[in-house]
Amino acid sequence: MNGVSGRMGYRQHLVRSILAIREQGGVLLADGETRVQVEPILVGRSEKKLAELAARHGIEHYTTNLDEALADPRWQIYSDFLVTKARAAALRKAIAAGKAIYTEKPTAESFEEALELARLAEAAGIKNGVVHDKLYLPGLQKLKRLIDSGFFGRILSVRGDFGYWVFEGDWQPAQRPSWNYRAEDGGGIIVDMFPHWNYVLENLFGRVESVYAKAVTEIPERFDEQGEPYLATADDAAYAIFELEGGITAQLNSSWTTRVNRDELVEFHVDGTHGSAVVGLFGCKIQSRNATPKPVWNPDLADQHDYAGDWIESPGNREFENGFKSQWEEFLRHVIEDAPNRFDFLAGARGVLLAEAGLRSSAEGRRVELPVVGADAADASAERAGEASALAGVR
């Protein structure tokens, strides 16, 4: 586990996933009886931090030498939670070592490199997976159930709103690391969030066929972890329209410069001919066609209708586990017993491609079409997307 001293690597992947799986006795296999236990080795740059984490959680193995860990046959899976800029080089090493790989996204800084990693993994015959955590969360699982049941009728549009105010770091410490706001260090909200939007959209509604985006740096100066001012060179807000296969339009706002006035930090509003839903990471409110009010526009009178009261909460009907843990278990079963794996390096490459297309759209002020990227179309996709790859660093 490389990068577990970072916020995401520690909280979601180590504590809430691998250690939680260990505590339950291992991952349950398809027969419903057999469990296979997992043993982590922590990898990072600071031996002191690794030793503290290992002592805190009773972990036996840790090292600052990635090459030694990859050369050790005891460790069958390499998992990567490094900063984006350092990820591709480490993934190449893991591929060369013949390890199965499970990694955070984006898998690389450019689509060209992300696609190359997918090809290298395929040629090496190694199993590989990319984190798609949002799809495993309760709200989006409820949304998927609504879609599969035909609740919406024909889906017309999706509106999404994500973000919160990230403090500048002067009078209150910032709650995100400073590299997130430096393009030269792999930062930017498009690079961070568009890979999420790609897998959410393509797995729930349809493949993203084009994007029109506007990326902006709304806070030009921030303060780093030492309280020193620095120039913010990466985008901290992005406003985008995505055209999806089947004629669905999605409009998604992503911002670290907005103050929250919604039930959750991310919400999706889905409208269909037969019903609508407002979904967060956990909640899911619905309104069917026969329960839809009939508003009449009249700007001369205050509207007294309680529109929020017209929605009902969709029941969970089952218990949902931590989304990161659920996907970890799915990937472990893929490695152990060849269970299906929906989200491989090609899926990760599609997320990187959308981020590049979004940056390109913003830089050129126009709509950008996306090629199909699949196992049988990777070569053609690389050629058609080459121009977009050249703009990976544009903010």
Would you mind describing this structure in some detail?
34% of the residues lie in helices and 21% in strands. The protein has 11 helices and 18 strands. A hairpin with a 4-residue loop joins β15 and β16. The longest helix is centred in the last third of the chain and has 20 residues. The protein is globular and about 75 Å long. The relative contact order is 0.15.
Structural class by helix and strand composition: alpha+beta
Looking at the structure, what is the overall shape? globular
Please tally the helical runs, counting DSSP H or I stretches of 4 or more residues.
Answer: 11
Please summarize the sheet with the most strands: 9 strands, mixed
Q: Helix and strand string, N-terminal first?
A: HEEEHEHEHEHEHEHEEEEEEEEEHHEHH
Rg over CA atoms, rounded to whole Å, is 22 Å
Mean pLDDT: 93
Q: First CA to last CA: what distance?
A: 31 Å
Topology, number of strands: 18
Helix content class: 25-40%
Q: Describe the strand arrangement of the main beta sheet, using strand numbers.
A: 17-16-15-14-8-13-12-9-18
Query: Strand percentage, roughly?
Result: 15-25%
Poorly predicted tracts of residues: 377-395
